[in-house]
Design goal:
The chain has about 210 residues and is an alpha/beta fold. The chain is built from 5 helices and 8 strands, in the order E-H-E-E-H-E-H-E-H-E-E-H-E.
Length: about 210
């Protein structure tokens, strides 16, 4: 497959790139700073661009089969501002599949199921800014005609790949406290061939 990875120099994004290259897919790594990509692989194209620049997104999307976004909130509104541009160009190009990495804060609360975790007492986070940004992306994707999946990890230490974890549609697995970066990246990457969680959020934890 031809896979476009947004946020490919981040903790999760860089691991997704590694998994995809291991399986001999062609990866276009969309980056602001090409020097941060230290991989040399014939199946890797490093594309320098800005996700808020429509012309960059248009060029990067050419010939792509699936889009994976591991973009961070970075204390800005880049995430929610870029998503309509990304979706619009996917629709123009006829690209149907997008997988994004969100946060467990935008899953349904178990204690108060009609609201999201970050809006409830279930969330231990003091700041809700990042969750609000991911919530906007969720709302934007719900309105799109794409096959989307939002992978929603809880506390995300670097850790090691264990390869065994629990996932649950729309909720965080019961008593889930953490999930490593490599396992989150592996599950996210595996969604390129899975249709189990189309148009769903997925909670992931040990």
């Amino acid at each position: 497959m031809n896979i476009l990875v947004l946020g490919s120099t981040g903790r999760v994004g860089s691991q997704i790139v590694a998994y995809a290259l291991r399986d001999r897919h062609h990866v276009t790594a969309f980056v602001r700073t090409p020097e941060k990509i230290q991989i040399n692989d014939e199946n890797l194209t490093v594309f320098q661009g800005n996700v808020l620049n429509k012309a960059d997104i248009v060029r990067a999307m050419y010939g792509i089969d699936v889009v994976i976004s591991a973009l961070n909130t970075d204390g800005t509104t880049t995430l929610s501002e870029s998503m309509p541009i990304i979706i619009g160009e996917m629709e123009n190009e006829g690209i149907q599949r997008i997988i994004t990495v969100g946060t467990a804060g935008i899953l349904q609360s178990r204690t108060t199921p009609n609201i999201l975790r970050y809006q409830s007492s279930e969330s231990k986070r003091k700041s809700t800014r990042a969750a609000k940004e991911h919530h906007k992306v969720y709302d934007i994707l719900k309105e799109a005609t794409l096959d989307w999946t939002i992978v929603c990890p809880t506390y995300l230490p670097d850790g090691e790949r264990i390869g065994k974890y629990r996932v649950e549609r729309n909720y965080l697995p019961e008593s889930g406290a953490e999930i490593s970066v490599p396992d989150t990246a592996e599950f996210t990457y595996n969604q390129i061939i899975s249709s189990d969680y189309i148009n769903s959020r997925v909670g992931i934890a040990y």
